[in-house]
Design goal:
alpha/beta; nine-stranded mixed β-sheet; three-stranded mixed β-sheet; 8 helices
């Protein structure tokens, strides 16, 4: 009997190892299953058109005897491209129809006007991809749009919130009823992702390839967000206190919630984006403290208090560049 004892011990070790391995595997699976939502709450396709905020820039003059643009086909489209199919260069890009960073459809009267605000500093390679890609994507949608690039032209800490506020002020002056706050490193992949505001704020980039196409948390608004201009003004825009990376988007989500506004989303198959490779700004270690302090200061810190010096506003053919120092 004693000669079998080592074998029994060996079997016990193997069984114990298998149990530990299975428990670890289950833990890993549960972690990834709980890290974000693959199927998040969203508007059903049949309700998208009824939730769109149909408003145009009052400066836009409809063409006589020209039909209105129709958006049903776009919203029902199932077309998309894979992230690896995104072009890295645009040597043959055509700027037909573009003027001062804006586009208006020729064959129909648009029912939507949107200002796309892009905060920017020292990412020329990404901007060289973003601008032509977005024009090629948006010109097929039958919308009136203008792209604004707000560039921080100083050596101070990066301040995305302040830059969005500055861009919003220009878009308000230009009479745009809808603002789309857009990171320069995100590109939409789905044809049916109509660039339009809804009746309430809309988080557009709910499914990003870098995050396995899952929504990392419910109140996420970063990446690409469409919000009515009057609502952006009502929440007093972004906080100007977040320097570096992180915090400003979650603070903006809290401002939206404080005004009893909901964050809406399109279905996942209309919300996929690819993220261009980039280096992050320095993380803001004070973001949690600032968010806590801001709960009582939404009306004092934001769009109405942003402090900056405008260096230039250049209306180029492909985009309007707003250069500022904070």
């Amino acid at each position: 009997m004693p000669k079998w004892l080592p074998i029994n011990k060996l079997l016990q070790v193997r069984v114990t190892s298998c149990i530990i391995f299975l428990l670890c595997l289950i833990t890993v699976i549960q972690f990834f299953a709980s890290y974000g939502k693959y199927n998040y709450d969203h508007l059903p396709r049949e309700e998208l058109i009824s939730n769109i905020y149909f408003h145009t820039n009052p400066k836009l003059v409809p063409k006589k005897e020209t039909p209105n643009c129709n958006y049903d086909g776009i919203l029902q489209s199932t077309g998309s491209i894979n992230s690896w199919e995104v072009p890295k260069k645009y040597d043959d890009f055509s700027a037909v129809g573009l003027a001062n960073g804006s586009y208006t459809p020729e064959n129909c009267n648009p029912l939507l006007s949107v200002a796309i605000l892009v905060t920017y500093r020292n990412r020329q390679n990404q901007l060289d991809v973003f601008i032509p890609y977005m024009h090629n994507f948006l010109r097929k949608q039958g919308i009136h749009y203008s792209i604004y690039v707000i560039e921080q032209q100083d050596d101070k800490a990066w301040n995305k919130g302040a830059l969005y506020n500055i861009g919003a002020k220009q878009a308000v002056a230009d009479k745009f009823p809808c603002l789309i706050l857009h990171d320069v490193d995100l590109l939409p992949l789905d044809v049916g992702n109509l660039y339009a505001c809804l009746r309430e704020p809309r988080h557009m980039s709910a499914s990003i390839d870098k995050f396995r196409y899952v929504l990392t948390y419910d109140y996420l608004v970063g990446g690409a967000l469409a919000i009515r201009t009057d609502q952006y003004m009502a929440v007093n825009g972004f906080s100007n206190r977040f320097e570096g990376w992180g915090g400003e988007d979650d603070d903006f989500a809290a401002r939206i919630s404080a005004k009893n506004l909901k964050i809406l989303r399109f279905p996942r198959e209309l919300s996929r984006y690819t993220m261009l490779v980039h280096r992050h700004e320095k993380k803001n270690d004070e973001r949690t403290r600032i968010m806590y302090e801001n709960k009582l200061n939404y009306d004092k810190d934001g769009l109405n208090s942003v402090d900056y010096v405008t260096i230039n506003v250049k209306r180029n053919r492909l985009f309007t560049l707003i250069g500022v120092k904070l």
